[in-house]
Amino acid sequence: MAGNSTGTGSGGGSGSGGGAGGWDGPQRRAWLRHYYSQRQKRLMTLLIAHRRRTSCCFYPRAWPSLRSTDWWEQVVLKEFGPQDWLEKFRMSKETFFYICNQLRPGLAPHSAHFHPTLPLEKRVAVALWHLATNVEYQTLSPLFGVGPSTVQSCVWEVSYAVVLLLKPLYLRLPDEKELENMARIFCMRWGFPHCIGALDSLHIPIHPPLRLTADYCNGQGWHSILTQATVDGLGQFWDVSTAFPGSMENSAVLESSSLWVLAKEGRLCPNPPKHFMGKAQKYVLLGDATYPLQDWILKPYQEDENLTQRQLQFNYRLKRAHSVIENAFLRLKARWQILLKCDDCSLELLPTLVLACCILHNVCEAHDNPFNEEWLEGTEPTELPKPCQPAPAAMEDSRAEQVRELMCQYFESCGEG
């Protein structure tokens, strides 16, 4: 199944600069849920309004040499082989033109403008090249024979179009039949039953915004925005909430996200729930110690010498299955290396860019585009370790322990594996 998803929760600092401790308390979490919900609505409204009022026209800069302006037509379109397309655009030529056709309604030239516009395919190429390599606008512009400001415009217009036109196809909430299929695939590939995905967070390094440095400074002392994501058993995203301040804990982000609301409304499982081990049981997601134990989120038992063999086996199974999202994040950052360091992006535009990268990841994975393992080099810099703050005990659901026990029984009946 192509990656499906719910909405986007976009975060922004409050300016009070309290760091992680400033987000505690039920009233604060309730306020955050309302605030991010409103931010999401405003973001989508702005996206639609932006699309309506802009012509999506780009005027190539007049360069003294025709070599740059002809490079796209004469070299890329005529001489690039399959490996060239994969290396420069992170996808096959066929997938590239599929995306162009899907984005055409949002990027069509405006007939009222006298000046010739940059061809749609060239705009998409400029944007994908930048997202893939994170090269500076000034470095990329001579290659395509356009100015740096045109490169920037291409990146943002194409990102907007990807979110508006491809998100409904590749990043949406699964329906009941799709959830059942996701659980089947997850069990088949990862050996964890009654599970529809894995949940984790990704910190994206940024330059600290003025007056909000404390809010965006995470537990490891570097500045970041936080993205919460859920993937299926194929490593494709189906829920993404992004651009939360780096100081927020995963548990606070979860409570402020659309995923939490969907789960509480019972929209992540059939009604009534399907039976597992003889009992009606919701589908589960797999998290780590930074998430609260819920009847729909399972995490490992805390490691100590008192764990039973069954509990150790459960931990092993869960951690092995949870690696699907760790691998998905690695592939996402390796393919779209703009996510390794967002230097020239405003906080208001970052949610669109991150979402666009997640959607493009799903498109590439769904279309079986090859992945070059060499792209992984440098995606996990040792100087930026991942923040990891355990979830507060107050968020734990006592009923969830019964679900973990059911899983322990299931794995015990299956034997070692």
What does this structure look like?
- Helix content is 47%, strand content 9%.
- By secondary structure, the protein is of the alpha/beta class.
- Helix 4 crosses helix 5, helix 6 crosses helix 7 and helix 7 packs across helix 12 (350-366).
- It has a five-stranded mixed beta sheet with strand order 3-2-1-6-7. A two-stranded antiparallel ribbon has the order 4-5.
Q: How would you describe this structure in keywords?
A:
single chain; 417 residues; alpha/beta; two-stranded antiparallel ribbon; 47% helix; globular; disordered N terminus; nuclease activity; HARBI1-like
Topology of helices and strands:
Blueprint: H1 26-53, H2 66-79, H3 82-89, H4 93-107, H5 120-133, H6 137-144, H7 148-170, H8 176-190, E1 195-205, E2 224-231, E3 237-245, H9 250-255, H10 258-264, E4 275-276, E5 279-280, E6 284-286, E7 297-298, H11 309-335, H12 350-366, H13 400-414
Short structural summary:
The chain is α/β, with parallel strands linked by helices and 417 residues long. The protein is built from 13 helices and 7 strands. The protein starts with 25 loop residues before the first helix and ends with a helix.
Order of helices and strands: HHHHHHHHEEEHHEEEEHHH
Number of helices: 13
**Quaternary state, please?**
single chain
Poorly predicted runs are 1-6, 8-23, 47-67, 111-115
Strand order of the largest sheet: 3-2-1-6-7
Name the structural class: alpha/beta
| Rg for CA atoms | 22 Å
Average of per-residue pLDDT values = 84
Count every beta strand, where a strand is a DSSP E run of 2 or more residues: 7
Q: What spatial form do the alpha-carbon principal axes imply?
A: globular
Give the amount of beta strand, in percent.
5-15%
Largest sheet: 5 strands, mixed
Pfam family, one: DDE_Tnp_4
Cofactor: a divalent metal cation
InterPro entries: HARBI1-like, HARBI1_dom
Region (Disordered): 1-23
